[in-house]
Design goal:
mainly alpha; 2 domains; 0% strand; elongated
Amino acid sequence: MASDSQSKYIADLAVIKTKEFKEVKELLIANAIVGVDAEVVKSAQTIAEVTHALTDLQASKFIDVLNATKEPTRATSYSKKRIEKVTAILESIKKEIDGWDFPAADVSADYGKLARSLKPKVMSAIALLNNPEIAPDTRQLNQEIFLRQVATAIYEKTYEMNAFDMEIPHTKGAGIDDRYYGMAKVASNSVSTGAA
């Protein structure tokens, strides 16, 4: 089985050197690296499943193939249009969050339910950014920005609503944590690694 460091390196190279996960599998099969395990590779859904099926030697050969593979060209005008669409979705999400208010009959709000209501818009923005024609670093950076903006807007609104409820005038909390970095990396890399 491929080592952890080989698996991580293959995943990183796959993101840089391929546009889609199916290309990773095609490279393995076309270069006769997997032989009898070709069916396992064909049915793999993630890069982890692929690297799990590789021996140390096969992983080394695949790393050589990926290193020799030319990085695909990607059109910047295409990514610019998608980023503009995501920006419009972000503005729509912020407007929706700003409109959150306490239910008329009750002074408590289910913030989890309100946040979950944003999921369709968030997922459509991520899908727009998760296009193989957008360079991996551009995908990840824009997803980080998008997710941070959404999380900050949710945090600030719920903090403001709680401050209002407790009659604390004009306050802001310490802010949100940085989990959006990891989420953006996983989402961005999923195009080439098959990660969910």
